[in-house]
Amino acid sequence: MDMDRRTFVGATAASLCAAPALGIAADPKAAAPELYELRTYTLKPGKRPLLDDYLSKAYIPAAKRHGAGPVGVFAAPPENDLLKVYVLVVHRTAETVAGLPTRLATDDDYKTAAAAYLAATADDPVYQRIESSLLTAIPGMPRLEVPDASKPRLLNLRVYESHNERAAAKKVEMFEKGELAIFRRVGLTPVLFASATVGAAMPNLTYLLAFPDEGGRKAAWDRFRGDPEWLKLKALPGYADKEIVSRITNLILTPAAYSEI
Q1: What phi and psi values does residue 197 have, to the nearest 5 degrees?
Q2: What SUPFAM superfamilies is this protein classified in (predicted)?
């Protein structure tokens, strides 16, 4: 059984690491791409303090003990009295993705710290549901770049959905061949760029940007829209949004005080 599990995990890791290449031969000297689990908690009213206590005192310390992390926690503005909290967990191997739930279930320190959260009853739950997706870093940014968590910051989470895999690969190519460099130059500071490997709204490219504040975010996007290199790039054949991007989700997120990202 142990050998079968190791074989399965190894095969999964190989497939996940190969996923973002999308037909492009990998550079053997390149760093293996990180994996990101992005969870969305849709909370019941008044349950944010309980989730914060669980994440900060139980989940994040335990995840790091078992090889995952850093972990980012961000909230979106409430909609219709529903608060969504996004939890981003960094994994360096598929083994930690697959193995973390089992390790948490047998971690006594975790279970003690998580007791109040885990004791929630069916008639008073913490959340409606948890939605989760698994992302694989693109070759041009194989590692998450952690912003300075000691400073005030705003996060911008964007998801570019495409109508098929070819179009999704073209959007990744566009970032690889110039758009990501333009982002950096104009102040659209990247935290991660990744392709969805498992989850909803596939295929998609998901990325996260960091800004000092809302004014900085708006100014950086204005610089980007008028940048001469960007105007040239988007005019190239095959790179028009209408050809390769079918839907964009744009979220402005505020990090929790204990967020590591």
Answers
A1: -100, -40
A2: Dimeric alpha+beta barrel (SSF54909)
